[in-house]
């Protein structure tokens, strides 16, 4: 069994705007990480080769997927298909987001 206490995870290092990401679980078919974006920060991520599911643990903002915006808050879950443009914006409260990747992403990326 692999277990983790999500509140204890602290993604490091952080970029100049305070964004951080850490992978903490991986198998042959799935990986999971925790991403944080501080209030007022910008999300500069590029499309990925993997499908992703975002689950917002805490915070508030908006995610743009392709050409559609959706407000997110604690409890929001959003699917993003491989290769689709997406980013968080208008981050009003610090976002803590679980990121599920399938297949697992092999190399750490700035997210």
How is this structure best summarized?
The protein is mainly β and 111 residues long.
Number of DSSP-assigned strands: 6
Largest sheet properties? 6 strands, antiparallel
Give the helix proportion (percent range): under 10%
Which shape, going by the Cα principal axes? globular
Give the CATH class.
Mainly Beta
Number of helices: 0
CATH superfamily: Jelly Rolls
Q: Order of helices and strands, N to C?
A: EEEEEE
CATH fold label = Jelly Rolls
Number of domains: 1
**Low-confidence runs:** none
Distance between the termini: 27 Å
Please tell me the CATH architecture by its name.
Sandwich
The SS-based structural class is mainly beta
Structure description:
This protein has 111 residues and is an all-beta fold. It has a single domain (20-102), classed as Jelly Rolls. It has no helices and six strands. Strands 1, 2, 3, 4, 5 and 6 form a six-stranded antiparallel β-sheet that branches. The radius of gyration is 13 Å and the shape is globular. The N and C termini lie far apart (27 Å). The mean pLDDT is 93.
């Amino acid at each position: 069994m692999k277990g983790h206490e999500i509140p204890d995870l602290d993604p490091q290092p952080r970029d100049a705007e305070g964004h951080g990401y850490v992978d903490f679980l991986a198998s042959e078919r799935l990986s999971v990480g925790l991403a944080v974006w501080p209030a007022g920060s910008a999300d500069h991520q590029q499309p990925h080769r993997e499908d992703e599911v975002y689950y917002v643990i805490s915070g508030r903002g908006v995610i743009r997927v392709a050409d559609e915006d959706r407000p997110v808050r604690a409890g929001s879950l959003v699917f993003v298909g491989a290769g689709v443009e997406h980013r968080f914006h208008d981050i009003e409260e610090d976002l803590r987001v679980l990121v599920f990747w399938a297949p697992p992403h092999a190399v750490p990326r700035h997210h």
